[in-house]
Amino acid sequence: MKWLYRCPSCGAAYAIEPGRYLCDACGARNAPNLPLEGVLECVWEGEADEARAIAEAGGVPLPVEGKFFPPLPVGDTPLWEPERLREVLDAPNLFLKDDTCEPSGSYKDRASWLVAAFARKHGIKEIALASTGNAASSMSCVGAAAGLKITVFLPAAAPAAKRIQVLQYGAELREVQGTYDQAFDESLAYSDATGVLSRNTAYNPLTIEGKKTASFEIARQLAAALSAPDGRPVGERGQAAPSAAVAFRAPDHVFVPTGDGVILAGVIKGFEDLAALGLIDCMPTFWAAQAEGSSAIARALETGRFEPRPSTTIADSISVDVPRNGSFVLTKLRKHDGRGVMVSDEEILSAQRLLSSQSGLFAEPSSACAFAGYLKAKPSIRRDETVVVMLTGSGLKDIKSAALAVGARL
Ligand SMILES: *Cc1c(COP(=O)(O)O)cnc(C)c1O
C-alpha cells in the first residue's frame, strides 16, 4: 500500500518523509494568530483492498508499518454502555468511548504512538513538541517505551500531574512563561534550529492520522454491541457477526472535546476512511464540543471566520487562543454538516460530576466538556439515535478542577 501526504486545499502531493510538515504553497500563506494553512492529510494510493483487509481483521490502515510501533498498549480502549447514566438521562443508546485508560491517561497517545513509529522507521532519535499538558505527558510516555529523547515546551501553568508525568517519564521539560500559543512558537523555533522531529499538533500531519484509530474501534464495537440493522433490540450485546469478517456500524452522533481540532479531524478522517472502504454506509453527525471561553472553531462554524480571542476556561486541554487545525477541521465539518456546541465552565464541572457519579468514569474537564455538550444538544437528538461521547483524558490529571466540582479543598 502506498501512502502520501496530500494538501486538501490545492491537491499537491508530498512523500511522507522526515522534514515534511506543511504544503509548500499553502503553508506560505501562514499568518500570526490564525489557524495553520497548508496542513497535510495522509492518503493511500491505488486499490483499497489491502486497507479493507486490515480493517476487517480488526486493525487500522496506517502509513507506518506495524513493526515500528513502540511496545506499549495504545488504543483498543473500551466502549462503555453506562446503564445507570442511560436510565438517569433516558438515553438508552448512549455510549462512552473511554480513552482515560490509555497508557499516559489521554487520547494523545494515539498520535504519539504513530509519530514515534515514524521516528523509529527513519532512525530519528529526538522529538520536540509544545503542549497544554497531555501531548507532553503522552509523548514522554511513548518516548520512554520507545527509547526516544523527548523535549517538551510546556506552559508553567499546566496542571501539576501532567508536568510530573513528563519528569517521571524522563523527558526534558522546558517551562514556558506564557501561554500554549507561545510554547507552540518556541518549540517550532527549537525543532527548526536543531532539525529534530516536531510532534506539534496539526503541524505534523501524523498527529491527525494517529487520532483516527478510535473511529475504527467505535464502528467495530458498536456493531458488536448493537442490533444489526435487522432490528434486534438495542443493548442486547455480544452476538457475533454472521461472517468471519468484523462488522462495522457508525453511530448517529459523536461528541468530541475540541481545542486545536486535531482529535475531531482525526475522528472524522477515520469515519471517512471507513466509508471510502465501503465498511459503513452513512456518516455520523460530528459535534465540536467547546468551552465558551475557548470556542474559535464552533464560532467559525457559525460566522465563517476565525477571530483570535484570549482563551479562558477551566478545561486546560482545550484552552487555545488559536486553534492550530482550525482551517483543516472547518472544511471537514462543513463537508459532513458537523455542528458546534458551546458550554460554560459551570456546565463542564457539573457534567463531570454527573458522569463520575452515575457511570463510574472520572474524566478531566475537557472530556466533561464533550459530555456537557451532549447534554446541551440532547433535546435535538432522538431517543433511538446512537450517541458516542469521546472521553479523552483521565480525571486524575487535573485534581484542582475536579475538587472545585465537588466543593472540596485540596
Ligand atoms: C488535546 C486534548 C483535547 C483536544 O484535542 P484537540 O486536538 O486540541 O482539539 C481533548 N481532550 C484531551 C484530554 C486532550 O488532551
The biggest sheet, with number of strands, parallel, antiparallel or mixed sense and barrel status, is: 6 strands, mixed
Q: Could you give the order of the helices and strands? A: EEHEHEHEHEHEHEHEHHEHEHHEHHEH
Structure class: alpha/beta
Question: Residue ranges: pLDDT <50 for 5 or more in a row?
Answer: 228-242
Evaluate the radius of gyration: 20 Å
How many strand elements? 13
Strand content: 5-15%
Mean pLDDT: 94
Hetero groups in this structure are: pyridoxal-5'-phosphate
Please characterize this protein's 3D structure.
With about 400 residues, the protein is of the alpha/beta class. The chain has helices spanning about 25, 50-55, 85-90, 110-120, 135-145, 160-170, 180-195, 205-210, 215-225, 260-275, 295-305, 325-335, 345-360, 365-375, 400-405; strands at about 1-5, 15, 40-45, 80, 95-100, 125-130, 150-155, 170-175, 195-200, 255, 285-290, 340-345, 385-390. The protein has 15 helices and 13 strands. The strands form 3 sheets. The chain has a 6-stranded mixed sheet, with helices on both faces. Strands 8-7-6-9 form a 4-stranded parallel sheet, sandwiched between helices. Helix 10 (about 260-275) links the parallel strand 10 and strand 11. The protein is globular, with a radius of gyration of 20 Å. The termini are far apart. Bound molecules: pyridoxal-5'-phosphate. Pyridoxal-5'-phosphate (PLP) binds near residues 107, 134, 261, 263 and 366.
Topology:
Elements: E1 2-6, E2 13-14, H1 24-27, E3 41-45, H2 49-56, E4 79-80, H3 83-89, E5 94-98, H4 108-121, E6 126-130, H5 134-146, E7 149-155, H6 160-168, E8 172-176, H7 180-194, E9 197-198, H8 206-210, H9 213-225, E10 253-257, H10 262-276, E11 285-291, H11 296-303, H12 326-335, E12 339-343, H13 345-359, H14 365-377, E13 387-391, H15 399-405
Parallel strand pairs: 5-13, 6-7, 6-9, 7-8, 10-11, 10-13, 11-12
Antiparallel strand pairs: 1-2, 1-3, 4-5
The structure holds pyridoxal-5'-phosphate.
Pyridoxal-5'-phosphate binds next to helix 10 and helix 14.
